[in-house]
Amino acid sequence: MEGKNLKKNVPSAIKEFVGILGLSEAAPVWIKENIISVNRKSLDKVKASFALFKEKINVKKVSGTLKGLGF
User: What is the spatial distance between Cα 21 and Cα 27, in angstroms, rounded to a whole number?
Assistant: First the structure.
């Protein structure tokens, strides 16, 4: 994931698009600085929220496991 102020902007983007309930359903958890884990059922909503957010947030890769990301 790429963008500025990700720790602040990621939850703000999700909350702005799907609301507080959608944010709690997505349950974003930071794995590393540029890697977050979200609920699979909410993935499309999370990606849409990044696309519509005023700050630019790019998703580089999506994987079902950390091993798939190269860890």
Answer: 10
